[in-house]
């Protein structure tokens, strides 16, 4: 029988400019989860030479939000659209990552937000 299922929001850890250009694990998507939405939030604008940010998982660095969709030098919330995001099924747990690009970074803080459905009781 069909059933209404309420999504929940998974908010990742933050990343900051002091990490430099790198990929940082910021959380985990639980097994048997359907990710139905994603955003990357720039809470403190990034300063330096060509700062970029991607939100993804351990397999694809920009699976959710691609750096061309983010203006890292402007605080705000950025949804992924380039990948025509239609959802991602995770039968097994996966790490969430934010990839920072750029050089001589002197400021910046960001985090990710994923809208998820726990489908463990169905599969």
Explain the overall architecture.
The structure is a single chain. This protein is mostly beta strands and 123 residues long. The protein has one domain (27-118). It has no helices and 7 strands. Strands 1, 2, 3, 4, 5, 6 and 7 form a 7-stranded antiparallel beta sheet that branches. It starts with 7 loop residues before the first strand and ends in a 5-residue tail after the last strand. The model has no long low-confidence stretch (mean pLDDT 93).
Q: How many strands in all? A: 7
Described by strand count, sense and barrel closure, the largest sheet is: 7 strands, antiparallel
- The rough form would be described as elongated
Mean pLDDT, all residues: 93
Rg, please? Answer: 15 Å
In terms of structural class, how would the helical and strand content be classed? mainly beta
Terminal CA distance reads: 15 Å
List low-confidence stretches. none
- Our estimate of the beta-strand percent is over 45%
Number of helices: 0
Strand and helix order: EEEEEEE
Q: What level of helicity do the residues show?
A: under 10%
* Whole-number tally of structural domains: 1
């Amino acid at each position: 029988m069909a059933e209404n299922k309420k999504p929940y929001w998974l908010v990742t850890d933050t990343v900051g400019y002091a990490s430099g250009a790198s990929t940082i694990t910021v959380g985990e998507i639980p097994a048997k989860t359907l990710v139905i939405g994603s955003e990357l939030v720039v809470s403190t604008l990034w300063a330096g030479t060509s700062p970029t940010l991607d939100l993804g998982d351990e397999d694809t660095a920009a699976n959710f939000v691609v750096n061309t969709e983010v203006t890292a030098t402007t605080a705000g919330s950025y949804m992924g659209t380039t990948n025509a995001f239609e959802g991602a099924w995770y039968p097994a747990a996966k790490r969430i990552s934010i990839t920072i690009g750029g050089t001589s970074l002197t400021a910046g803080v960001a985090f990710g937000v994923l809208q998820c459905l726990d489908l463990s009781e169905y599969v």
